[in-house]
Amino acid sequence: MTYLVKAAFQRGVAARDRLQLTPGSLERFQQLVDLNSLLQSLLIMVNLPLSMVGGIGVLWLSGLNLNLSASIGFIALFGVAVLNGLVMVTYINHLRSEGRSLEDSVLTGAVVKLRAVIMTAVVPSIGFIPMALSTQPGAEVQRPLATVVIGGLVAVTPLTLFVLPTLYQWMEEIQARRGVQNALGTKPAIEPGSSS
User: Which CATH number characterizes residue 172's domain?
Assistant: First the structure.
């Protein structure tokens, strides 16, 4: 019996070590570095806690445990959450570089990227529904992964669509007041009509 517990523990440690650094996480990190703004990178990372709350909440509601399969689901969830935030912030930056005002860039960016963000949340969620509802042999491995991804995407999608653009505008306005250089390489002026 002691041997079985020791072997299971060693397998768990080996699995944790393999999950420490994945190629996808390195790629997302490189994309965040390419933003040239620590604040915008942190802004995108705001998606992660809410997606985690959504994933853990759904695990709790469904009575499932946090296990290795659920941890892999969190890795997939974090990738989609960061990608959606990156798509939104990058597009808003693109609109700003074209000379649009801050408010116009944020509103246009949120509206234009609405479909992309919703599709990247809906497609995996629909794909994971059979895994989440499965009662076949092996479902105990699949169900936590699917549950985490579905719950996390349901929680993080509204954040990406509504809160992230609002935080972007707020952050840029604060930087403008302080005269800090933004990610576009300019010191933004406070625009007419913005609160001071």
Answer: 1.20.1640.10
3-state secondary structure labels for all residues of the chain? CHHHHHHHHHHHHHHHHHCCCCHHHHHHHHHHHCCCCHHHHHHHHCHHHHHHHHHHHHHHHHCCCCCHHHHHHHHHHHHHHHHHHHHHHHHHHHHHHCCCCHHHHHHHHHHHCHHHHHHHHHHHHHHHHHHHHCCCCCHHHHHHHHHHHHHHHHHHHHHHHHHHHHHHHHHHHHHHHHCCCCCCCCCCCCCCCCCC
* Tens digit of each residue's pLDDT (9 = 90 or more) over 109-153: 999 999 999 998 899 899 999 988 888 888 888 899 999 999 999
Q: Residue 7 domain-assigned?
A: no
> Is-above-0.70 flag for pTM?
yes
Which domain covers residue 165, as residue numbers?
24-178
